[in-house]
Amino acid sequence: MLGPDSEPIGFMSSKEALEMAVQKNLDLVMIAPTATPPVCRIMDYGKYRFEQAKREKEAKKKQKIIEIKEVRMSLNIDVHDFNTKVSQAVKFMSSGDRVKVSIRFRGRELAHTNLGFGVMERFVQACSEIGNVEKPPKMEGRSMVMFMSPKPAKPVKPTK
Hints:
Shape: elongated
Distance between the termini: 53 Å
Strand order of the largest sheet: 3-4-6-5
Order of helices and strands: HEEHEHEHEE
């Protein structure tokens, strides 16, 4: 049996414990019902639930949700368009998001998937400073898809 200050009170009947809880205007909460004898605690259960919900809300606020952003390119992409797509991907990865890079093959382009691998390789080289390839380029129907993720932040070494 635990008191309101989490101090062990000792062994007592459930009737005595309930009377003690009513006197102190608190609740009798069973902590370990399977233990022999069962362990109970006298506490304000409403306050406990409120603090627990508050802790869960705070933990939820601190976690970062990683999104997947998509960058679509074509096989015949020009230099300026390519650089624009690279800068977009760098912006996404610097904010902590993963990037899905895809090339859509249209018509006869499907016969030249090797050129698509070349474009993907150029893209990886351009983004190598900020991101790593998570899943290498792979054909999925008429599209070639690759996933990149931001490089983990390096811990800063303290100067002497």
